[in-house]
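Good day; I would like, with your permission, to put a structural problem before you. A protein sequence and the structure tokens that stand for its backbone fold form the material at issue. Thank you for your consideration; the sequence and its tokens are set out here:
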Amino acid sequence: MAPGGLPSHFGAPYHWPMSSYEIVTTRDRPDLHAQFDEAFRGLWPEFIFHDPVSNELFPRVATQFPDYDVTVVHEGVVVAGAWGVTLGWDASIDDLPGGYDDALVRAFAGLGRVHDTLVVMAAAVRQGYQGRGLAALVLEELRTRALRSGLARVIVPVRPTLKARYPLTSMAEFARWRREDGSHLDPWIRVHERLGATILGPAEKSMIVSGTVEEWERWSAMRFPASGAYVVPEALDLVVVDRERDIGIYIEPNLWMRHH
């Protein structure tokens, strides 16, 4: 699964009949992977799936971190899921990973640091099952697993749902936006805050995606007739296109949050 942003209605109240859902891991049910593309692929923009760091390292997650790769099944159908990796973090802002990509790199780096922190990398809910609190359910499941495993901390590089509507606004500024009742403007940030999470700060270079002009035109269903910075649907920041070099570069910001 790609990095975590969820449509606005995923922030619904957290009520679910536990008996009707089964929570399993990749270790339990590797056969469920066949359903993942159908269940989750359309929940993120196409360009997200062309991050080279993720494409290189993600296939190793199921083997290295199977207990943090959870899937919710309802009557044999995959309806939600979330996955994470572990790494060493000293709880300071300065020691935070650079973002989604850097968290993956650090998780597999083998630098000799004790892995004491779970990083929730993504969560998703299948179309037709949204608004049932399943996003909160999988987050709770991963937090519980982290606690049982003796991990001291849980952090998330959140991909705010509404940030794509404000690509000219910095993530630091967006993180400050609140509604009249004090809750965050963004519904996916609200889901985390309702579970007790707090904002740590922006991950300005969480993911970097580059491609040719033709690839970006295909991924975005847009045309880029001249070099420049473009607002691309579902991108959280501008995509910079250089036609002379035949390259487009997108640097995605995320928002680090910590669950307590």
Confidence is low (pLDDT under 50) at residues 5-16. The longest helix spans residues 134-148. The radius of gyration is 18 Å. Strands lie at 22-25, 69-74, 77-87, 117-125, 153-158, 198-211, 228-230, 239-242, 247-259.
